[in-house]
Amino acid sequence: MADLVQFRTENGDALIVEVDEPSVGLQRVARNGTAIAEAGQRLEQALDSLRPSLAAVMESIAAMAPTSHEIEFGLKLSGEVGAVVARSTAECHFVVRMQWERGAGR
């Protein structure tokens, strides 16, 4: 059974997410009669932890100098570790779309 974990934002709003792993060691809070685990970090902190790695992926793709590029990936929130890149099958992957256009003189 999936657990519910509540991530607070810096302004105090809450995002409740369904997580697959048991939320061991997280503080439970009550909301409408449902037990919800309180995440150990704010939503912004969880997402910021991904920034350096995803920036490195984007910089590597941009270095190939495509005219345009798009990187698609899934994010998963975990009550214990924050944000992680989600797997879509047995392994994690990125979907990368790149496009190069010929110059007018070619």
Helical stretch count? Answer: 2
* Model regions low in confidence, pLDDT < 50 over at least 5 residues: none
Shape: elongated
Task: Identify the strand order in the major beta sheet.
Answer: 2-1-4-3
Q: Compute the gyration radius: what is it?
A: 19 Å
Strand coverage percent: 35-45%
- Helical residue percent band: 10-25%
- According to DSSP, the number of beta strands is 8
Q: Tell me the span between the first and last alpha carbons.
A: 59 Å
Order of helices and strands: EEEEHHEEEE
Q: Pairing-aware structural class of the strands and helices?
A: alpha+beta
Multimerization status: single chain
The biggest sheet amounts to: 4 strands, mixed
The total number of structural domains is 1
Model description:
- By secondary structure, the chain is of the alpha+beta class.
- It has one domain.
- Helix content is 17%, strand content 38%.
- It contains two helices and eight strands; from the N terminus they run E-E-E-E-H-H-E-E-E-E.
- The chain has helices at residues 43-48, 51-62; strands at 3-8, 14-19, 27-31, 34-38, 68-72, 75-78, 82-85, 95-99.
- The strands form three sheets. It has a four-stranded mixed β-sheet with strand order 2-1-4-3, with no helix packed on it. Strands 5-8 form a two-stranded antiparallel ribbon. It has a two-stranded antiparallel sheet with strand order 6-7.
- The longest helix is centred in the middle third of the chain and has 12 residues, at 51-62.
- The relative contact order is 0.19.
- The mean pLDDT is 75.
